[in-house]
Amino acid sequence: MYKINGTANINAIRAASEKGVKRFVYISAADFGLAKYLLSGYYEGKRAAETELLTRFAYGGIILRPGFIYGTRSVGNMKIPLGVFGSPMEMVLQQAKPLNQLPLVGPLFTPPVNVESVAKVAVRAATDPVFPPGIVDVHGIQRYSQQKSR
Fold first, then answer.
1. CATH code where residue 13 lies
2. Residue 106 neighbours by CB distance under 10 Å
3. Which InterPro entries match (predicted)?
């Protein structure tokens, strides 16, 4: 998992930097606490890519850290409507933001986010020169997705 989430993304970040790209948006992942130990290669790779991005794109690197991304997922010919679960969970967990701060289990209360919201913020971050560089958590993704673009 480290190769795909770390090495491959680091290579893409380096190539973009070497070609003079000014802005780079990277979709990473929220930290789910205990889950990061089960998927250590995944999270280590994501964080290594983030470090590379912030080093090479100090003024134009944007990291989006969504949790569970929902939308309709296609698996072969079958469509799985993850929004059936994701949308209600998002509404409930948005109101439970203080629970995110609980030790060990807090990250499990990170609300899901719609794939359309993540896409909207990623495009805005890539094209809006005043979009601030840095890390945007799931609450920031939700907030930016509701704002009108300039």
1. 3.40.50.720
2. 16
3. ComplexI_NDUFA9_subunit, NAD(P)-bd_dom_sf
Give tens-digit pLDDT for 21-53.
999 999 999 987 777 777 888 999 999 999 999
Element (H, E) at 79: strand 78-81
In the chain, what is the greatest distance between 2 CA atoms, to the nearest angstrom?
Answer: 44
Phi/psi at 26 (5° precision): -120, 125
Q: Which domain holds residue 111?
A: 2-146
Structure tokens, 74: 């296609």
Q: Is the dihedral angle over the CA atoms 81, 67, 33, 104 positive or is it negative? A: negative
Could you tell me the pTM of the whole model? 0.88
Q: How many domains does the chain have?
A: 1
Close Cβ partners of 122 (under 8 Å, ≥ 6 residues apart): 25, 27, 64
